[in-house]
Structure formats: structure tokens, C-alpha cells
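Narrative of activities, Objective 1.

The group set out to show that a structural description can be obtained from nothing but a protein's sequence at a throughput compatible with the screening campaign. Below is one input-output pair from the validation batch, recorded exactly as produced.
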Amino acid sequence: MPNFATIVPNSDYIVVYNLGSGFTNADAYASGPASGGNKSLITAVAAGAGGENIIRMASNNFNLDSPGRRFQVVSGPVTYACDPSAAVGTLQRISTYNISAAQPTPPAGVAARIAQNIVGCTITYNQNVINQRAGIVAVWLNFADPSGGSSVNLFQQIQVSNVP
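Output recorded for this entry:
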């Protein structure tokens, strides 16, 4: 669970057994910003007796149980957008926009520039690499000196837990 102080009431969600798109009642994005299926809007957080934390959320039946007895606190979607065709070729992180069933293109949110002078980029996700328990995000970025000098390629693979 994230730091209790970082949970934002009426913005963050409790998500139980998220399996992703194509799984009825187990896709946190299918119902958009509304509670339902496998997610419920957090309405309040408070300190309880004996050092316990209390999280209150909107009413929801959570149609499926989590076999691992897990849940996640979801603060909303984040998009990483790479545009090598821009004048300075940028990589941006876009956040603070609503959950929706379809990925908005481009998402309306707060954009933060992560890198510039990018002349090529590829970001891929393979969810079926290790018996579907983990996925791999591969990020390849090609940077070039705007004065026409040197360039460098960066490649990173990130393991993603697919365990709901």
C-alpha cells in the first residue's frame, strides 16, 4: 500500500483483482471514472485507533475475489508520449486526467517534459513473456545533438508484475 498520506480522497481508487481489458468486471478502466466492477472511489481517509488507518470508499460489490487477497490504490492513468517529429523531439509524462475506457489521444492532463533532442523512440509492452505472471516494457530512445554532432541510443527493459 502506498504511503497513507499520499492517498487523495475523491480522486484515488481501490482496485481489486484487475485483469485488464476484455475481462468483464475485472478491468479498472472499463467504467471510466465511475465506481463499479473492480474499483471503488476512495471517499475519505483517517487515522484510526491503535495506529490503524481507515479508508472509506463508495459502495461497490466487487464482483470477483482476489485469489492473492491483494488490492491496489490507483491514482489515475499516466501516459508517456514520445514525439521525435517535434522541433526538439520530446518525451513527456502526462498525468492528472480521468480514467477512461479508451486511451485519449492525446490525453488532456498535465504534461512534464522528461527529455528532448529525441530523433527516434520505441516503447513496447509484451505481457506474455514469463507465463503471464510478468511482462516486459522495452524502451528505446535515440538522442542526437541538435548541432549535428554525436548521437546516442539508450535501451532499457523493465519487468512489470502481471499478478492481479
